[in-house]
Design brief:
Helices cover 51% and strands 8% of the residues. By secondary structure, the chain is mainly alpha-helical. A two-stranded antiparallel sheet has the order 1-2. β1 and β2 (17-20) form a beta hairpin. The protein starts with 9 loop residues before the first strand and ends in a 21-residue tail after the last helix.
């Protein structure tokens, strides 16, 4: 039988859980996103500079998307859906980096210990 195209090599184990390359890639993406979000939001001002304007444009765009889909105030849903959106964009774009195993972010949701 041919090996599954979704199968990944196991790098190491944490107890009974197998840690594969996509899991490590996900951890790296999360670390980069945490660092970038800290750097971008640490000096917010009342009169925004270019960096803050881009950040506000992204947040406004995500809020508009949420509003178009659920037709309610998007503020309560912004933290969860905005974070999920930014993570999925970063995960899908990570495949263009050299040395990163290309797999869609949705395939990382499967159980690696199977």
């Amino acid at each position: 039988m041919a090996p599954s195209p979704l199968a990944s090599t196991i790098l190491f184990h944490l107890g009974p859980v197998a840690i594969t390359r996509p899991v490590v890639t996900t951890w790296a993406i999360l670390a980069v996103l945490i660092l970038v979000s800290w750097l971008v939001t640490r000096r917010l001002k009342l009169h925004p500079d270019r960096r803050q304007t881009v950040l506000e444009l992204i947040v406004t765009g995500i809020m508009a998307q949420i509003d178009q889909v659920i037709r309610k105030n998007p503020r309560p849903f912004l933290p969860l859906l905005g974070t999920l959106f930014i993570f999925l964009v970063a995960a899908n774009l990570s495949g263009v980096l050299p040395g990163v195993e290309r797999q869609p972010a949705s395939s990382r949701l499967r159980r690696p210990w199977r």
